[in-house]
Amino acid sequence: MIEYRQINNLPYDYIKAKVKEFLDEDLAFDDKTTLGTVEDTSFTTAIIESQSELVFAGKDIIKAIFEDCERVEVLIEDGQKIGSGTIIAKIYGKSQFILSRERVCLNLIQRLSGIATQSHKYAEKAKPYGVRILDTRKTTPGLRMFEKFAVRAGGAYNHRLNLSEGVLIKDNHLSAAGSIDAAVSQIRNLNQNLPIELEVDTIEQIYQGLQAGVDGFLLDNFDRNKTLEAVKIIRSYKNGNDIFIESSGGITYDSLEEYLSTGINAISIGALTHSVKAADLHMEFIEE
Q1: Has residue 144 been placed in a domain?
Q2: Which pLDDT does position 288 carry in this prediction?
Q3: Whether residue 78 lies in the annotated active site
């Protein structure tokens, strides 16, 4: 069965390097408004608070962004479901420093918590059926590791991280190679120690893929009845129960249940990352 690497955590040094990139983009060290209105001697306590029910992702991001403050307390764990009005973090330090980093912090953890919340919603619906909800490579350039981490925080699973971590033969590869058999043979001739997954549009391609000895199928835009037919064919083949079957293509939360009882192993959902709504969070200065 095909298993892809899971992004269960992010190296802190990686987070710090990306945070520096984001802060440099925002010119956080030259915040004209803050420098012009707030005294350098001003200190404050800020809280980050949820304004809706959500699944949180971004604990180490908050720590990395505000690590030079006198005190940073993140009160919520990654993957934790919280209600509206929950205090996620308390930060104490120079007002100028906190203000200049507020937007970068909120932008990032709002997006990641939105992904985690969406992923949790799909994953919980699929859990009773033993079907994994997978993300895709339809991620924001520069944010893939963060977004894949958020998917895991929400309880869904990661598909391949990049083009080197898995073989997925799609229609354009087949057009260039000439046939399924030719594409699979060329992959094997490269001695790549990776399982081969084949995207198929037709039942005939499934038969060709089985004969070529692929390790998995991505059923692209199959409806429920066609999916049931495909699963029956694959599972009836020698070692068919070991073959990975993934459904994809326009499957929404509302249509998800149609596929969960078909015998597939996974469903990949691009919407986990490419069109997610940011979670509702804000930062407030408080008196203590």
Answers
A1: no
A2: 73
A3: no
Per-residue pLDDT tens digits for 170-193? 999 999 999 999 999 999 988 778
Q: Is the dihedral of CA 225, 229, 234, 236 positive or negative?
A: positive
Question: What is the predicted pLDDT for the residue at 287?
Answer: 84
pLDDT score for 219? 98
Are 106 and 19 within one domain? yes
Q: Which of 16, 170, 224, 226 is catalytic?
A: 170
Tell me the CA end-to-end span of the chain in Å, nearest whole number: 55
The reply to whether 170 belongs to the active site is yes
Range of the domain at 59: 12-122+277-286
Q: What HEC string does the chain produce?
A: CCCCCCCCCCCHHHHHHHHHHHHHHCCHHHCHHHHHHCCCCCEEEEEEEECCCEECCCHHHHHHHCCCCCEEEECCCCCCEECCCCEEEEEEEEHHHHHHHHHHHHHHHHHHHHHHHHHHHHHHHHHHHCCEEECCCCCCCCCHHHHHHHHHHCCCECCCCCCCCCEEECHHHHHHHCCHHHHHHHHHHCCCCCCEEEEECCHHHHHHHHHHCCCEEEEECCCHHHHHHHHHHHHHCCCHHHCEEEEECCCCCCCCHHHHCCCCCEEECCHHHHCCCCCCEEEEEECC
**Catalytic site includes residue 138:** yes
Q: What is the mean pLDDT of residues 130-134?
A: 98
pLDDT band at 33 (very low <50, low <70, confident <90, very high): very high
Q: Are residues 69 and 49 in the same domain?
A: yes
Are residue 181 and residue 117 in the same domain, yes or no?
no
Per residue in 201-236, pLDDT (tens digit) is 999 999 999 999 999 999 999 999 999 999 999 999
